Amino acid sequence: MFFLTYLRRELRRRMRQAIFIVLGLALGVGLVVTVLAVSSGVQDAQRGVLQGLYGIGTDLTVTTKPPPFNPNSNSGLRITMTPNGTEVCNNGKCSTGAQQLDNLNAQAYAPMSYSTAAKVAGLDHVSAVGAGLVLTDEQMTIPATGAAGGALPQSTSFNVDGVDFTHSKLGPISDGTISSGRNFAAADADADVAVVDSDYAAARSLKPGSKVTIAGVPFTVIGLINQPQGSVPPEAYIPLARAQALGKSAGKSLAGKINAVYVTAASAAQIPAVQSEIGKLLPSVTVTSPSSLANEVTGSLASTAQLASDLGRWLSMLVLITAFAVACLLTMAAVARRVREFGTLKALGWRSRRIIVQVLGESAALGVIGGAVGVGVGFAGAAIIGKIAPKLTATVATPTGQHLVQASPSGTQVTNPTITHTVPVVMSAPVTAGAIVLAIVLAVIGGLLAGLIGSWRIARLRPAEALARVA
Amino acid sequence: MYELAHVTKDYQKGRRMVSAVRDLTLTIPDGEWLAVQGRTGHGKSTLLHLLGGLDRPTKGSLTYDGTDLTRAREKQLVTVRSGIFGFIFQTFNLVPTLSAAENVEAALIPLRTNRAERRRRVSAALESVGLADRARHLPSELSGGQQQRVAIARAIVKERWVLLADEPTGNLDEATRDEIIGLLERLWADRGLTLITVTHDSTVAKRAQRIGVMKQGRLTIIRGAART
Question: How far apart are CA B80 and CA B98, in angstroms?
Fold first, then answer.
């Protein structure tokens, strides 16, 4: 075919220039692919962290803020230690002397009625709903006396989730895989059994059949669960009914209560609509989406995400624009050198359109080659980043539900400490099919743009003028 | 047949208007060989471009076989250029990346003839200029005379009726010049072409039926009937 023969020969004649254009486009496109890969990797890592928090398939989480802490009220646990003795008041109920405390409390979120989950399930565009009880088990040994100004006894605490078996496909437990033993069965609904995080179990030498004490009650470990490394998972899962029976919120029973509703929307596009509907139905609740939660993730992962989205995007845009400009200038220069050739072709009866198609074909071919090389450069860039990327961490701050009251001559100060979980994140830079398609499209657009600018000159070229210029 | 009536071509050159062709009235019958002589810058090439539909007169009327080249749309001019006129240039104007055969074939592309027919006509054209054995050679692998032969083959491959040659021997040595002129003369005689050559060279011009001299845009016929 004459078109292809002419195209091939012309590109071969301008080999050095063609290579220059191809490399320019490839560099720009490769950088775009690399930045997209890094962004994709960061997003995957963030998704991993978020999934660990609220489980796979959970689009929205409904919680209620605990009531504001009143340091003058009798609610909560109050420990007063003096050299003369120790007094422990739990929701106004006081006792003295040495004692062992093991409380299971809903500290982070206020309780809601179990029927809240059913109400949310009845909303439009909601495909699934799960309920849970997010609790903290706090264990403390209180001595009989304390030194004046001395430190409070150290407590050990771990997170316990009450799991609703009827919707166990949602919530944090859905993100893990049982590594040993078994998961909950329907018969376990009222049993003192627990599924324990495998890392937590390893640190405490727990295995299926071992006992773990929660709220002073020995629970039999029935299974160990592997949870994503980049997540902040609960250390133990127990049946919802048992969590309701043993847990307390401000000294009150949690019977018939939950404090987290996990919601899946019918589609990703409907998440905002569902979020809005829940807000209207339950004005006092907090509805958290992965995107709003993503803002709470800090650490080097967040910094990398920011870097990829800001510097990476602008840098790749700059290189791409430069590559386009260089391609345009070189094509225009090539067209200028070929004025006599095009004038001759016009004299032979070639239409301007035919010549333009020929030049566009040459530019598009360079674009396709540049895109293909650019994808290779992108893969190489992503691989290099994967190799040399520093270890990233994601930090998520979660409220403890505790309140620290500090008395001083100037007044009483209350702070609400949070626990920050810093987890290592393994970041990869996957090159997606979408990025490859985008790369080719960008390169072809760059090539065509260069060809179009050159073609504009050809279209305006009068054959007599073109021939006279060289005469 | 060409009919030119009061044809003028003006150019804007900086602030000044230059008349390359002035008030030219002329008839060129089919099958005639007209040689146009004159010094550089006196309008010879401009006249050739007007005759070939590569440019339009500023004033006057120029028709070829009833087609008004002054007012024809660009599409119509392209059709005439691709079907009727053949050009030969002083610098050969071959596409350097295409072989001799492909250069000749380029002239057939606008006619949308099929590949087999194109090949047949290209072979015949190269054969008629004595370059059948150089079909695959690039222009850079051919001598000046051979390149001009390829250009002539490109001009006649469509079996055109009008051949417009702008200094066809200007870049050739004496022996090659005679060879090329001999070839053009043979093609003109054998095919009944209308041949219009623009040349400095009196030896070339003398072979034509009619000779005109361009001076400051005006054409004076010095041999043959004026036919104005």
Answer: 25
